[in-house]
Amino acid sequence: MSDVLGDTRVETSSWSLSEQDSFSLTRTVRYVHPVNAPMAPPAASATKEQCFRRFGDEGMVLETQTVVNDVPMADCFYIDDRMLVEPTPEGGVALTAAFEVRFVKRTMFRKVINGTSVIEVTKGIRKYEAYLRRAIEEEDAKAKVTAGAEEEGEGEEEQTERVESKGRIDVSIKEEGGAAPPPAEGEAA
């Protein structure tokens, strides 16, 4: 996934049981990310603290707190995001992503920081969506080949239909505490 986002020097700790509860896993990810912001360097180091929870067959959630270093006013804010993955009644997957830019200090650049962050986080989520769609399509293609090789005749069509239904993914993105993020390329505003 790092290559999709353009991240470099990625260091990821192993998942470990959370100290807060016995049903969450946590990890830390450190990396260098390209920056497209006014008065900022072309790349900046960042740290993500992630918490993962799975709720049986009902879904899972990944909560992340991202701190960006090496950019102006980095000590004034961090970004919280939450990705919820759950099954749909049609047999697909729904990914709901929500995020918020949280300010911990006052700054006269709040609007600039918020606006740039919303655009960058939304772009990242859209890239993640595209990555997931490709991964699902690849898995569906592998499953079709396997299903076709294992089953011949009438059952093959049913198997293929079932496998294809797994490939659906619905994505919604919400900026918490603010307006909806800009639409993806090709979407109506």
From TrEMBL:
Domain VASt as annotated: residue spans: 1-140
Keywords: Membrane
GO-annotated cellular components: membrane
Record region (Disordered): 140-189
Composition bias type Pro residues, residue spans: 180-189
PROSITE patterns named among the record's database cross-references: VAST
Subcellular localization: Membrane
Signal sequence annotation: none
Keyword Chaperone annotated: no
Residue stretches of biased makeup (Basic and acidic residues): 160-177
Listed name of the protein: VASt domain-containing protein
Positions with biased composition (Acidic residues): 149-159
